[in-house]
Every structure is written in C-alpha cells, then in structure tokens.
Amino acid sequence: MAQKHYNAAYLEDTATFLQGLKTYSYKPFLETGSGTIIDLGCGTGIDVLNLSRTLGNQVKVVGIDHDPALLEKGKQAAELGQNVDFICSEATGIPFDTESIEGLRAERLVQHLTQPDETISEARRVLKPGKPLVLVETDWASLVFYHGEITVQQKLIHYLTETKINNGYAARRLTQYLEHAGLQEIKTEIFPFTLKSLKEANDYLWIELILGEMKEKNYLSEQEHKAFVTGLKNADQNKYFACSINIVVVSSIK
Q1: pLDDT per residue over 65-124, tens digit each?
Q2: Which end of the chain is more exposed for a tag (fewer CB within 10 A), N or C?
Q3: pTM of structure
Q4: H or E stretch including 244?
Q5: How many CA within 13 A on the CB side of residue 66?
Q6: Ordered structural domains, the chain, with CATH
Q7: Helices assigned H by DSSP within 142-248
Q8: Counting Cβ atoms within 10 Å, is residue 133 exposed (0-12), middle (13-18) or buried (19+)?
Q9: What DSSP designation does 182 have?
C-alpha cells in the first residue's frame, strides 16, 4: 500500500461503529473454558480486551500484530489482572506450537496480506483439531454511493481494490483461502452497513482522503474530483447522503 489504510484513531473509531458485528464474531469462542485464543493482526488490542472480558480469566487472549506502537496502546489499556498478552510478530510466522491454541480470530487483516494462503495455513497449524477460525473482512468492492457520478464511483472501487489495498478482494476470497487450507464447516455471514453522513464516510472509510489521493496520483482528474466531492457535500447538506458497504464474517473449524 502507498499508505496504511488505518491508524490507531481509525481502528478505535471503527471499533465503536462495528461493535455489534464484533460481538457476533466472538460467538464461536464462547464455549472455550480454558487455554489460549489468538487475535491475529490485533492492532490496538480492542478485540483482545473485549474477548478477555467476555471469556473470563480462565482463557488467555493473545494479540499479535507487526506494529509495536499499536500493541503498546493495547498493553496500556489492559486492566489489572486481565489474562491477556501482546506479541509483536508478522502474521506469516505465528509464534505458537502446532495444535496449541483453542481458537483464532482475524479482523480486517487478510486485505493487507500479500501471502494470505501462507497466513491461513499458519493459523490452521496452530489450532487444535475441532477449534474455530474466524475471519472478518471489509468487502471494498461492495462500496456504493447513492448519489454522484457512477464513473467516479467505479474508479474509486478500482483504486481501493487494485491499488490502495494489497488484497482488495480479500472478503470475496475468504472461503477459497479456508478451503485451500483444509478448514471445515465454513459459514459466511454478510453484514451491510449504511452511512448517512459525509462525516461518517470520512471517519470510517476515509473517503475524502482517498479521493484526494486519487487526484494527486492522476487516477481522477481535477474536474472529476471536484464534481464528486461537491456532490457528496451537497447530498450531506441536503440530508440525502447515503453510502453502504458490506463486511463479511466467515467462520470455520479445523
């Protein structure tokens, strides 16, 4: 990616917006009575802490991420006595023994990977037989604005899926990755989210930032950029702004 499509503030903002979906993605782990669960690509550790509170102190929840600055935020937010840990590591080499963990979850990680099959195979390796693997991903190709020039929308989706994000179609490939790795009982759930203001679109999707980046890199002309952004602001001001995107949750069992 030319620039990360996230930072600590972005992860914290979207965590609030996606709380219902996050809670749903924890369901396969609720019967875990002991052992270790991994949140891979944990960012600031929001889900590590939430899972720990949900599952109790008999279950250790470990967050793994390659960014030490994000991990530090998780460590600072951890509560006294909470059974959590944070490890700095790449997703392609999970630092756990084979068949040693009770479950693994990864949210909005696969879209950033250049070798997703390798990471899914690693996730399968560390899982005990019969234990769950849950993947949560944004379907960037599902992004829709219900106003504005269609051609610009198509260019925006193409930029996100083919240029900005390493694996922009990850959400639509999750079942394929899981099948290739030999996971079983694969289940797909689709969660549509609607944004009703330009502020929400900027907070959760960084829309104006991305459009500006496209203009700077000549993916959009000055005229296309100005007309589309003006249209977004006009729709917002007149209270008919509407934007939607899908997030996919795929669960499976080793």
Answers
A1: 999 999 999 999 998 889 999 999 999 999 999 999 999 999 999 999 999 999 999 999
A2: N
A3: 0.91
A4: strand 243-253
A5: 9
A6: 8-253 (3.40.50.150)
A7: 150-159, 170-181, 198-205, 207-216, 222-237
A8: buried
A9: T
